[in-house]
């Protein structure tokens, strides 16, 4: 590239930056004036108020005046907020105004145009854009096409333009470091330099190097279900985060970050990605793990944790039962069971008062089933509550005559009496009237908990109902189809009952339990949520997905996963896909496959993909690195020493290292021994812990979605990874490495490595 072009571009950049600075000054002025105005309004709030309380009109006028002042304050705050956001965008643009330039022509007759693309848009007059936001419709041609005719979507339909130049920039602090012209989508050169950076405890945005396939995910607006199958490190997570930023831009004014929800695999992952959207000038969406989502709704029950689930050793019969409970057929069966409660079998509890039955369950049942047949569960419940409140109100008068009320009133001290009188006038026609007044108050107060119990539907019994449903299931499902015997089912029901008594629950029961509860109480889901993202979909079961669809009835779903990394569901994840396809309208379902892995070097990707037997396609990105190493240590002490040597070597070369062990026990043991040897290390034990800089030890099931410069697999031995169904787990662990992968086995090395060609790793 001739120097004259660079000089010319630098000149253009300088002009743009100068205008950005002018705009910054303007925007600061607006912030100051909004602040002054606001302070002024607050100061004069009382002076400017017209307080008149002597007549109804006067009170109304005062209220209006307060309202006007509040409105003025809100307007100033709005304009303050707007100017502050604008200023922070301008500050970002000042340093790195744009990263690409496109020259194109809309038709043979129209004038050629030049646009620059950056992290936000910037114009010096209403229609004169100096920088286009990367999410603007026209910016799509930067990611999508090569030179020549390229189409892009606009709100009015498809447009085609003839692209004549694509230029990419690397700009730092207002200076162009490099620039290249390209005829490719996004040059390998730029991507390579982005990927060669070191890992961080925070993920970064990929806006300047989004790939064509990723762009399809980011800009999809038509699908109810967007399903992405992507190899490890193919940028699924990166793509959805930019997708959220895109949607917030595209639907600005109609969509807020609070209407977008991401279900992520663990809390560490939430921590890892929480800077990407703020970096793009957007608020973070709602982020939760499924466990948190379910657990939040069951505060009195200990829901099984990830570590417990991972450590579960189930008998084959329990496995089959878990498979059934996670299926779509089970979801349909629960729906059917809930529907039949409209006519029979709802379980009720007595409403009690002072330890005695106040409204017996038989009475409640009679009321509940007395309504017209076309009453569904929700209006049936509502009508029952109303009827029970009426009974309660009628009982007030009779209760007022009871002895305990009289005794209570006689024993009242001054303080309690005052509280009962409240602000009401204390003049009564007679002592009897006064007694009536107090008696009513006393009774209503003591009936408070009953009222609450009615309103909160405590007369229903979700635990008993759930157990009743489990017992009824053999009438609704052919257990033989799942190779489950009646005795096995019976045993599993007893196990669930025992757990419920103990206030605990397996994860596999949680969702059917919540679903049944929602059906019983007529909950219709959160209608406000518009986009729901599920990462690591292979670890969900079909029941959970159907439940989420039910819980967010107006949301569009984006589901991302990698069947190769199904560490919990293993082979079942394939049936999940089939079940998923029946849940959404096929015309509104889009499937995108990402096969290129960006995270790791070619050597690491090639090695890891050979661990899989019939894995989904994975293509390595052409980035050179060293071969993975496999170390076989004679005993644990020797293995520990090898690990320490590897850590030292990584430290010397500034590679952040994660040591990944199979389970928590192995990780604890290793951490202790490393500390005894003076190695500083953080052990990650639970999904709620924070990611720390420096050396970490993390169990496999918490490493999902994360990445590190260097990974040391601890105990890549036959004793830990012996069975064929551990392949996906070993693959998931190894694919966390960006540049360097070292496996340390004690004793015999895992047989799962036997298919890896010997020239793809080094024995050391
Ligand atoms: N277009 C891109 N430009 C630059 N970096 C990219 C791009 N796509 C992905 N990456 C980088 O590749 C790495 C892997 O991406 P990401 O974590 O999104 O993959 P993933 O598919 O979610 O992986 P996994 O399923 O293994 O968790 C990240 O460091 C990400 O920043």
Automatic annotation (TrEMBL):
The keyword Cell membrane does not apply. This is RNA polymerase recycling motor HelD. ATP binds at residues 230-237. Residues 209-601 form the UvrD-like helicase ATP-binding domain. The gene is helD. The keyword ATP-binding applies. It comes from Levilactobacillus fuyuanensis. Pfam families: UvrD-helicase, UvrD_C_2. Keywords: ATP-binding, Helicase, Hydrolase, Nucleotide-binding.
């Amino acid at each position: 590239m001739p120097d004259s072009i660079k000089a010319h571009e630098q000149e253009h950049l300088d002009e743009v930056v100068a205008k950005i600075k002018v705009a910054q000054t303007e925007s600061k002025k607006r912030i100051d004036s909004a602040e002054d105005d606001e302070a002024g309004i607050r100061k004069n709030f009382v002076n400017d108020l017209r307080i008149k309380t002597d007549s109804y009109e006067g009170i109304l006028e005062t209220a209006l005046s307060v309202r006007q002042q509040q409105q003025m304050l809100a307007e100033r705050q709005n304009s303050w907020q707007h100017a502050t956001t604008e200023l922070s965008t301008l500050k970002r643009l000042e340093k790195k105004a744009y990263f690409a330039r496109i020259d194109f022509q809309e038709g043979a007759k129209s004038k050629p145009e030049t646009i620059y693309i950056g992290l936000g848009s910037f114009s010096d007059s209403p229609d004169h854009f100096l920088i286009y936001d990367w999410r603007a419709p026209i910016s799509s041609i930067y990611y999508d096409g090569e030179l020549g005719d390229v189409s892009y979507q606009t709100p009015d339909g498809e447009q085609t333009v003839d692209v004549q130049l694509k230029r990419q920039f690397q700009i730092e602090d207002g200076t162009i470091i490099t620039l290249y012209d390209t005829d490719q989508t996004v040059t390998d050169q730029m991507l390579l330099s982005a990927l060669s950076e070191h890992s961080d405890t925070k993920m970064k945005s990929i806006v300047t190097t989004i790939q064509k396939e990723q762009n399809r995910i980011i800009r999809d607006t038509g699908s109810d279900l967007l399903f992405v199958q992507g190899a490890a490190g193919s940028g699924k997570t990166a793509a959805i985060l930019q997708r959220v930023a895109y949607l917030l831009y595209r639907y600005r004014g109609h969509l807020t970050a609070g209407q977008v929800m991401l279900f992520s695999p663990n809390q560490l992952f939430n921590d890892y990605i929480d800077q990407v959207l703020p970096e793009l000038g957007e608020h973070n969406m709602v982020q939760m793990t499924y466990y948190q989502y379910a657990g939040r709704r069951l505060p009195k029950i200990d829901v099984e944790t990830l570590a417990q689930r991972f450590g579960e050793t189930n008998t084959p019969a329990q496995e089959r039962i878990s498979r059934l409970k996670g299926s779509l057929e089970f979801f349909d069966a629960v729906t059917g069971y809930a529907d039949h409660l409209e006519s029979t079998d709802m379980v009720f509890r007595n409403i009690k008062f002072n330890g005695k039955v106040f409204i017996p369950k038989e009475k409640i049942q009679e009321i509940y089933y007395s309504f017209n047949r076309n009453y569904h569960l929700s209006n049936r419940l509502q009508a029952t509550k109303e009827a029970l409140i009426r009974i309660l109100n009628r009982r007030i008068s009779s209760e007022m005559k009871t002895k305990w009320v009289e005794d209570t009133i006689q024993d009242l001290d001054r303080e309690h009496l005052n509280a009962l009188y409240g602000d009401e006038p204390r003049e009564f026609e007679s002592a009897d009237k006064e007694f009536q007044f107090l008696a009513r108050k006393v009774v209503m107060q003591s009936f408070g908990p009953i009222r609450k119990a009615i309103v909160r539907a405590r007369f229903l019994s979700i635990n008993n109902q759930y157990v009743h449903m489990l017992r009824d299931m053999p009438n609704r499902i052919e257990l033989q189809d799942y190779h489950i015997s009646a005795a096995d089912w019976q045993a599993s029901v007893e196990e669930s009952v025992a757990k419920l008594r103990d206030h605990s629950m397996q994860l596999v029961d949680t969702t059917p339990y919540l679903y049944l509860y929602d059906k019983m109480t007529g909950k219709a889901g959160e209608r406000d949520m518009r986009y729901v993202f599920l990462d690591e979909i292979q670890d969900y079961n079909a029941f959970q997905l159907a439940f989420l669809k039910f819980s967010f009835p107006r949301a569009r779903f984006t589901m991302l996963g990698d069947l190769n990394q199904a560490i919990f569901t293993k082979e079942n994840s394939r049936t999940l896909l089939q079940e998923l396809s029946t849940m959404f309208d096929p015309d509104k379902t889009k499937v995108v496959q990402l096969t290129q892995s960006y995270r790791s070097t070619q050597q690491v990707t090639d090695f890891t993909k050979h661990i899989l037997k019939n894995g989904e396609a994975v293509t390595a990105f052409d980035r050179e690195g060293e071969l993975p190493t496999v170390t076989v240590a004679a005993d644990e002490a020797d293995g520990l020493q090898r690990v320490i040597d590897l850590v030292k070597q990584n430290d010397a070369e500034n590679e952040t290292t994660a040591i990944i062990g199979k389970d928590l026990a192995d990780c604890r043991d290793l951490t202790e021994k490393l500390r005894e040897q003076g190695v500083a290390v953080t052990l990650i034990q639970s999904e709620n812990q924070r990611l720390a800089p420096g050396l970490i030890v993390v169990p496999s099931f918490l490493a999902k979605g994360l990445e590190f410069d260097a990974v040391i697999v601890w105990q890549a031995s036959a004793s830990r990874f012996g069975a064929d169904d551990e392949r996906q787990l070993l693959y998931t662990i190894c694919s966390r490495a960006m540049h360097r992968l070292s496996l340390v086995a004690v004793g015999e090395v895992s047989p799962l490595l036997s298919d890896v060609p010997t020239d793809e790793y080094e024995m050391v």
